[in-house]
Design goal:
alpha/beta, seven-stranded mixed beta sheet, 30 strands
Length: 598
């Protein structure tokens, strides 16, 4: 048997070389000088005849040397780090639990969800030091290095989300916080299509033990809503049948209901009208995975945006861009005219200042008070009667300017604004310039006026090529929705797993309660309300709805092993040998004291 089979650092036995100088000292030390005492001679000879033995006397004289040699041997053994081989599982003191909280874990079978079973499995894996990592849309460390009671308390308070998960990132996070010799236990259905196997292999390559515990009952016949799109006041839902048998499903929204049949693996679409204020589209009958049986649709209580264009020289490019916008109804009037109806937004374009009535200006101010919007398009000359509705303080005209980089805003996002040939120079009275020229003149500017919104559009249409750009109607669609305070349906309706962001701290009513923050995670499917605006979040994930996971224990499944082979690791005995060294030193001191040297 080689020394390495019992010692981690056999080089430590080099300390035995200290024995050589000690033996040399014992060999060269002078013999004691004998002095004969006549009065003691006869007594000592008589006692020696009774009790002494030559071999015993030699050993007695060498006892101190033997004790010293023993201490050196034990010290060298400690330096060599003796160990005994033990199974790796018996040495684990720290466990990192990875708990899958993704939507697929809400699949129900036998009256219990996968998540409930997984939490029970995680509870059994708790050790003396336990960390907990949640595998949701973003990995979260719920507990780091906690005691068993802390870990079990955290596990008891967990709940599954209705958002897609990222098991790969969660396992990588667990490996990053795991100490040497730690064990990672993953409890999941392993229906996640992310490359979590790679994360497991990387963790095991670091020497970490990774154990996979699968909970994947139910969900084999799932049918779910996997995608949706909006057009005008209608929503189109895509349904997919993940089962192996043909099924029929009814889809309802508001008072409308439609039925369709799906074969195994089929994807079918259905279009439904969106009721005022929105609603919940539901599949009937439901199945084991309820999260994708519903799609929440948020919509304004009044779906139509009424826009009034006041003009004495109609801008066909503008009115056409507005009329093709979904849910926008455009009315064009020529001053002088009276306005008796209420509009969500008013656009002043190419107006003859001499014919513009004061009541037309007052109508703009009243629209702002009602929470609507007013837009004024630049023209030459600019009427003086606009008053405080005009954000620009004009002082002349300029030509062929250089434009500054547009400010970050939803209104200007991904739009390339060309420089105008002619523009109005001046300064901004209030609000924010989103697009401006090199001399500081605003070209696109917005301002909040009470509950309403004002837009200054600085392109003089006859002197601009922007009206020919395909992004021109995109800009006006965004502008009208913003002026009317009506975000498009695509902004009101999101997918779970994202975030709802605001400019500042905002109180948000979520499906599970009220929270306050500048950003709120959309981990729950349902309706969210903030600042009088209603939003929705729905699970729309084809991969997450594929809840039937392959059995990890099945042979040839191409996955990583559920558990690694049993391995033996060294359990060092250094501390015990060190105690033996200390015992040898104490024994030597006791002997010297008994002999009278101390």
């Amino acid at each position: 048997m080689a020394l390495s089979d019992a010692f981690l650092t056999p080089l430590g036995f080099a300390a035995l070389l200290v024995v050589i100088p000690i033996l040399i000292l014992y060999l060269v030390r002078p013999d004691p000088r004998r002095v004969r005492l006549p009065t003691y001679r006869f007594l000592s000879e008589d006692r020696r005849d009774v009790t002494s033995h030559p071999l015993f006397e030699r050993l007695k004289r060498s006892t101190l040397l033997l004790l010293q040699l023993l201490a050196i041997l034990l010290f060298a053994t400690a330096l060599a780090s003796p160990y005994v081989p033990v199974s790796e599982s018996s040495t684990v003191e720290e466990t990192v639990l990875v708990v899958d909280t993704s939507a697929s874990m809400t699949v129900e079978s036998g009256g219990q969800t996968r998540f409930a079973r997984a939490v029970g499995g995680a509870d059994e894996a708790v050790t003396g030091t336990t960390s907990v990592v949640l595998a949701g849309s973003d990995p979260t460390v719920a507990l780091r290095g906690g005691a068993p009671d802390e870990a079990r308390s955290v596990l008891s308070e967990l709940s599954a989300t209705t958002a897609p998960g990222d098991l790969r990132s969660a396992i990588s996070t667990a490996a990053s916080i795991a100490g040497d010799g730690s064990r990672i236990v993953v409890v999941s259905d392993f229906a996640d299509e992310s490359a979590w196997e790679d994360a497991v292999r990387v963790a095991r390559a670091r020497g970490l033990s990774v154990e996979l515990r699968q909970f994947a009952d139910g969900g084999a016949s799932n049918v779910g809503i996997v995608e949706r799109s909006f057009s005008g006041d209608e929503v189109t839902l895509s349904l997919k049948n993940y089962g192996e048998a043909s099924v029929t499903r009814s889809v309802s929204l508001g008072g409308e209901r439609k039925s369709l049949s799906l074969g195994p693996g089929d994807v079918r679409t259905v279009t439904l009208g969106i009721p005022a204020g929105g609603g919940t589209a539901r599949l009937s009958p439901g199945d084991d995975f309820a999260a994708d049986d519903a799609s929440y649709v948020a919509a304004p209580s009044d779906a139509v945006v009424d826009v009034l264009v006041l003009t004495n020289d109609e801008n066909r490019y503008l009115t056409t861009a507005l009329s093709v916008v979904d849910s926008v109804e455009v009315t064009v009037k020529e001053p002088p005219t009276s306005v008796t109806e209420e509009y969500d937004a008013i656009v002043y374009s190419n107006v003859d200042g001499g014919r513009l009535l004061q009541t037309n200006i007052e109508e703009g101010r009243e629209t702002l008070e009602r929470g609507g919007g007013v837009a004024i398009q630049a023209q030459e000359p600019m009427p003086d009667s606009y008053g405080d509705l005009l954000l620009l303080e004009p002082n002349g005209t300029g030509t062929n300017p250089t434009l500054r980089t547009p400010a970050e805003a939803e209104l200007t996002r991904d739009i390339d604004f060309p420089p105008p040939e002619v523009y109005l120079t001046g300064s901004l009275r209030e609000g924010r310039a989103l697009v401006s020229t090199a001399d500081g003149s605003p070209l696109i500017a917005t301002a909040q006026r009470g509950n309403g919104r004002i837009l200054y559009y600085g392109y003089i249409e006859a002197e601009s090529a922007f009206k020919y750009d395909y992004q021109y109607p995109v800009f006006w669609k965004r502008a009208i929705y913003e002026l009317a305070g009506r975000p498009p349906l695509t902004e009101l309706n999101a997918e779970t797993g994202g975030r709802l962001s605001f400019g500042n701290e905002t109180t948000v009513e979520t499906p599970s309660g009220t929270v306050t923050g500048a950003s709120v995670p959309l981990d729950e499917a349902g309706f969210y309300e903030a600042g009088g605006t209603r939003y929705s979040a729905s699970l729309l994930s084809e991969s997450e709805s594929s809840v039937a996971a392959s059995d990890l224990d099945a042979a040839g499944n191409g996955s990583v092993p559920v558990r690694e082979e049993e391995r033996t690791v060294p359990d060092p005995l250094t501390e015990w040998v060190a105690l033996a060294v200390l015992g040898g030193v104490v024994l030597e001191v006791a002997y010297l004291r008994r002999r009278g040297d101390l």
